Amino acid sequence: MTRRVAIPVAAVALAAAAGGAAWAVASEGSTSGTETTGRTTTTATVERRDLVQYETVDGTLGYADSRTLYAQGGGTVTALRRPGSIVTRGEALYWRDANPVTLMYGGVPMWRRLDARSPDGADIRELERNLVALGYDPYSDVEIDDEWDSATTAAVKRWQDDVGLVKTGAVELGDVAFLPGPRRIGQQQTTVGAPLQPGAELMDTSSTRRIVTVDLDADLQSLVQVGDKVTVELPNASTIRGRIASVGKVAESAQDQNGEDVGPTIEVQVELRRGAKTGTFDEAPVDVSLAKETAENVLSVPVDALLALSEGGYAVEVVNADGSTRLVAVEPGMYADSLVEITGNGVKEGMKVVVPA
Fold it and tell me: Is this structure's pTM higher than 0.85?
């Protein structure tokens, strides 16, 4: 028969650190059963798994590829998209002089007037690719290359006719904005009625891809590598999965909300799993759990199953096939997620152990 005694101080500290409770027992010879008077118990299975300890850091949920849109031509702002709007290829980012400024996809900015006299260039290729994608080459006459030809002029006129521009066959500076993919409208930097000057800030835009940005303390840099999996807790307490997409190479000084120096940080960007439900949160604070230490393919039980022996050491109370129980000495290892790694002679995967209910 096993007798319960007071829990040693060391056992209390160990249990507290693990987030669970420990039981102290004194073993009197071999045992085939355990006294359970006054104690409600259940059982758990010894399972083999990976255990991971996490470091939780602060992050901000937002959108990737944030950039400012600048005016490229003159005129007057006559309409603006609402912040949060999503603009796709062929749609207007804003309106000047009652005409749309059309979003087209590409990496080369609109930096010159384009027409039949324009020297060859990558911006012509970009324009042709977009005109074809938008359906303005119904006869497949446009050859997508760096050269402007008559088929390009015809496609431009079809586009101009469709969006309400004068059919000149030339694309003026400010008629089109080349940006990499669909854009989400952010904070407006201008207002309806404002005169446009080339180079003036119009609005902030971003991609529609969700990311989490972490300003990580430089001394925690060893915890992150590109490709590492992380867990993100949203403001509504739901969690989503992600992976580290980039890790900054240069540490920068940072300040807290009171303007006080908090030491150097590096920027870490977390890419969220496709289809992750992030709601409408924008620039929202989130918690990011980084893997701090991992124990792979180990036997584990709930922390509450671990018993501190009065004579020292630890054990688990194993349930025999006939329903009786016995104590089996174990060596605890890593603690994580209310579980503890255990090793010891006679401990096997699939065993049932007693756990306080």
Answer: no
